[in-house]
């Protein structure tokens, strides 16, 4: 880390600012805006407090005083993903009762502002002085994430219109305006903030007093072509689930959070709509387009329709790499990793451009999303229009692996960029069996699986379009990669649930990185493992050193370096567990899948079904407390919110193949997690219902005209792939 990158704080020499913790922060989100609040609702300019829009903090202080005192907090209630109500009381020490007689309710709304309601529930009239102090630093979210609070920006008082405070800096502008109040406030501004004051409010018994504030603003300059708030129209169906109450709650809350995380790309052309929607990675740190995260969210939601996948694909296709640029790590065909309004310093020596391509996995995942969407019935016009982008992405994959000495898909980060470039991207994400950090260049196991799946799937798509020669070349390349993988990645184990496991990565010279990790769970649905390999991986995933009882640990608890609250060194990631469940179900390993799914669903109950990005990997015992969220985890987070639908689809065993008009069903036995019925699924534009009764009998209703359905294992292994057998539109399996 460069010396200039260590923010100085008061205290011991070389003290460094720390990332704000979020475990007790109330987050309201309506992408691209959000509000982060302590549980009492008072914004005091600390930690991540504030109203935000497009990665810019508009306001970090909004402090309410009544009679020059802060009200006493009594509770907070979520009113939806975008708003929350903070309730407090104002008491009078000189009175002969402990009952509160003045109730204060603040409703804070992301992208809007807040209301303050005072209710006199006592028997005497009240004369009140009410003040709202506001301030901001107009900081970039990257600086907030680093634990920095910028210098206060001096406000000014609006001279016309409704009472308002205004802030301007070279980086942004903000305004707080009183849009509704019984009488205008006294408005004042100083060098560090401004205040709205109502010096004499008369509040009779049983009466109330309400003010409404609007908080608006933006980054400066407004980045051209940057995603914006999505239209109210949601690009997926709303399923109705009957069965396990935990699964019902996880799906319902997840879809509500995903609605709030939607963003839209309005630069459409050709066959793409003007409002191409996608899912932002997570709030508060990653409320923007992330190639990998947005793709996984769209893949997981394919059982609810292909429109989100289409919007995600087009948004990324328009930003596909076209040139070689070392700073952006851009290359022709490469898919974007991260989009920000401006270049930003992320700490620890990490300087990233607004358009950053430093991921090794987004590109093969892009190809597989198109293939999966094609199998789920994406309209042919979109498939054909997006196919050239997928072919260019595949060219990057093949070319990058071809330039590697071992023929694997490795990453070679630039100085100042992300050190690790797959989903485990923290600086210590890759450790060996002795707990030592392993540096790149590295070929990660799951990335080889992604590349194999992309090549096989694209070959099928090209075959369907008559490009058989290109398809044969890709299948041969995939077969060679599968052979190289089998030779390089397996590690023998004298102790453990199976005689071998898959290395998290191999370094130069094909040296495998030892120590069981969750990465191998993401291989199960890619097809790169044979049946015996799937069984060995499943045994490790189900063993207590990786299965915490609440979900899949990112690193084995039995090796040095395990830390249950490490970002990637022992914590449980919601999406990682869900992907492993998908893969286990796809491989027919339902007992192991049910064990992981059951732990994940139990964890969901403790998180009120709003799953954090990751949570502690402590072992579950009969007397263990509820799982703890990682203290700085995003919540809501895109692929965590989508994981409920992923688990639902995995348990149903849905394997569609729109080109053949076949739906194959490979459901989990109902004895593992109970019977299940779902309506409101979408397949090739049709409404689909699936029911699995207590005896294991499967009934499908609403198949598109001309489709067939069958049960049993299919040829495809991907998250949305497979082939089917014969049936009519209403068919019991």
Task: Reconstruct the topology from this structure.
Blueprint: E1 26-30, E2 33-37, E3 43-44, E4 50-53, E5 56-59, E6 61-66, E7 72-80, E8 83-90, E9 102-109, E10 113-120, E11 126-135, H1 141-145, E12 155-157, E13 164-168, E14 172-180, E15 186-189, E16 194-203, E17 208-219, E18 228-229, E19 240-242, H2 245-260, E20 262-265, E21 276-279, H3 291-300, H4 307-317, E22 338-339, E23 344-345, E24 351-352, E25 355-356, H5 362-375, H6 380-402, E26 443-444, H7 445-464, H8 468-488, E27 490-492, E28 500-502, E29 505-506, H9 531-542, E30 572-573, H10 574-586, H11 590-606, E31 614-615, H12 638-652, E32 654-657, E33 662-665, H13 670-673, E34 676-683, E35 686-692, E36 698-701, E37 708-711, E38 730-732
Parallel strand pairs: 33-37
Antiparallel strand pairs: 1-2, 2-4, 3-6, 4-5, 6-11, 7-8, 8-9, 9-10, 10-17, 11-16, 12-13, 13-14, 14-17, 15-16, 18-20, 19-34, 20-21, 22-25, 23-24, 26-29, 27-28, 30-31, 32-33, 34-35, 35-36, 36-38
Helix pairs in contact: 2-11, 2-12, 3-4, 3-5, 3-12, 4-5, 5-6, 5-7, 6-7, 7-8, 9-11, 10-11, 10-12
Your description of this structure?
The chain has 733 residues and is α+β, with helices and mostly antiparallel strands. It has two domains: 3-219, Glycoside hydrolase, family 65, N-terminal domain (Beta-galactosidase, Chain A, domain 5); 228-654, Glycosyltransferase. 25% of the residues lie in helices and 25% in strands. The strands form eleven sheets. Strands 7-8-9-10-17-14-13-12 form an eight-stranded antiparallel β-sheet, with no helix packed on it. It has a five-stranded antiparallel β-sheet with strand order 3-6-11-16-15, with no helix packed on it. It is globular, with a radius of gyration of 27 Å. The relative contact order is 0.09. The model is unreliable at 1-9, 269-273 and 714-733 (pLDDT under 50).
């Amino acid at each position: 880390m460069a010396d200039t990158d260590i923010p100085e704080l008061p205290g011991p020499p070389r003290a460094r600012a720390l990332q704000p913790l979020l475990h007790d922060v109330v987050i309201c989100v309506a992408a691209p805006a959000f509000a982060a609040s302590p549980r009492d609702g008072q914004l005091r300019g600390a930690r991540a407090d504030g109203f935000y829009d497009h990665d810019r903090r508009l306001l970090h202080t909004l402090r309410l005083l009544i009679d020059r005192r802060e009200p006493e907090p009594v509770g907070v209630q979520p009113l939806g993903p975008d708003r929350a109500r903070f309730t407090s009381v104002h008491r009078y020490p000189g009175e002969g009762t402990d009952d509160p007689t003045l109730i204060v309710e603040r409703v804070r709304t992301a992208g809007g502002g807040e209301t303050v309601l005072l209710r006199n529930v006592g028997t005497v009239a009240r004369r009140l002085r009410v003040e709202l102090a506001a301030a901001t630093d107009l900081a970039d979210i990257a600086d907030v994430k680093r634990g920095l609070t910028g210098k206060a920006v001096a406000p000014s008082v609006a001279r016309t219109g409704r009472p308002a405070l205004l802030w301007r800096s070279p980086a942004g502008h903000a305004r707080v305006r009183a849009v509704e109040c019984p009488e205008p406030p006294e408005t004042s501004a100083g060098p560090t903030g401004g205040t709205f004051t109502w010096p004499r409010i008369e509040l009779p018994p049983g009466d109330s007093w309400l003010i409404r504030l609007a908080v608006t603003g933006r980054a400066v300059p407004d980045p051209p072509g940057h995603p914006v708030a999505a239209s109210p129209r949601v690009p997926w169906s709303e399923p109705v689930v009957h069965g396990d109450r935990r699964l019902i709650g996880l799906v319902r809350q997840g879809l509500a959070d995903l609605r709030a995380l939607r963003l839209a790309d309005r630069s459409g052309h050709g066959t793409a709509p003007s409002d191409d929607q996608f899912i932002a990675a997570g709030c508060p740190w990653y409320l923007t387009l992330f190639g990998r995260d947005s793709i996984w969210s769209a893949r997981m939601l394919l059982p609810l329709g292909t429109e989100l996948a289409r919007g995600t694909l087009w948004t990324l296709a328009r930003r596909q790499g076209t040139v070689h640029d070392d700073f952006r790590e851009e290359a022709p065909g490469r898919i974007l990793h991260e989009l920000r309004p401006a270049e930003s310093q992320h700490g620890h020596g990490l300087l990233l451009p607004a358009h950053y391509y430093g991921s090794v996995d987004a590109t093969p995942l892009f190809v597989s999303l198109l293939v999966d969407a094609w199998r789920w019935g994406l309209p042919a016009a979109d498939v054909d229009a997006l196919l050239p982008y997928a072919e260019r992405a595949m060219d990057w994959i093949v070319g990058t692996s071809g330039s590697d000495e071992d023929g694997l898909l490795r990453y070679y980060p630039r100085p100042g960029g992300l050190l690790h470039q797959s989903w485990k991207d923290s600086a210590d994400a890759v450790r060996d069996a002795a707990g030592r950090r392993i540096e790149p260049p590295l070929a990660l196991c799951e990335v080889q699986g992604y590349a194999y799946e992309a090549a096989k799937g694209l070959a099928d798509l090209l075959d369907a379009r008559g490009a058989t020669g290109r398809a044969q070349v890709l299948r041969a390349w995939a077969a060679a990669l599968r052979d190289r993988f089998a030779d390089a990645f397996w590690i023998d184990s004298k102790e453990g649930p199976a005689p071998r496991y898959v290395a998290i990565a191999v370094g130069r010279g094909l040296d495998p990185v030892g120590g069981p990790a969750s990465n191998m769970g993401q291989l199960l649905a890619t097809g790169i493992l044979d049946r015996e390999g799937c069984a060995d991986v499943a045994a490790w995933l189900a063993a207590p050193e990786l299965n915490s009882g609440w979900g899949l640990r990112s690193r084995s608890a039995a090796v040095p370096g395990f830390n249950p609250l490490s970002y990637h060194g022992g914590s449980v990631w919601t999406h990682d567990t869900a992907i492993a469940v998908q893969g286990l179900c796809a491989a027919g390993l339902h007992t192991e899948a049910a064990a992981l799914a059951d732990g994940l669903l139990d964890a969901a109950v403790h998180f009120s079904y709003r799953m954090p990005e990751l949570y502690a990997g402590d072992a579950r015992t009969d007397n263990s407390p509820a799982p703890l969220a990682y203290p700085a985890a995003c919540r809501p987070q895109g692929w965590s919110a989508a994981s409920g639908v992923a688990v639902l689809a995995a348990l149903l065993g849905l394997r569609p193949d729109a080109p053949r008009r076949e739906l194959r069903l490979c459901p989990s036995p109902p004895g593992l997690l109970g019977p299940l019925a779902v309506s409101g699924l979408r397949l090739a534009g049709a409404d689909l219902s699936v029911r699995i009764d207590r005896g294991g009998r499967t009934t499908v209703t609403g198949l598109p005209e001309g489709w067939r359905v069958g049960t049993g294992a299919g040829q495809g292994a991907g998250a949305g792939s497979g082939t089917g057998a014969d049936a009519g539109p209403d068919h019991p399996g």
